[in-house]
Amino acid sequence: MKYKVIKLDGRYSHRHRFSHLLEFYKGHVTMSKVLDYDRACRWFVDHFGWAADVEVQMTMRSNRRAMPNIYTDDDFNDNWATCSKYDDYRIYVKSTKELEWFLLANPNET
Question: What residues form DSSP beta bridges with 7?
Answer without folding.
Answer: 20
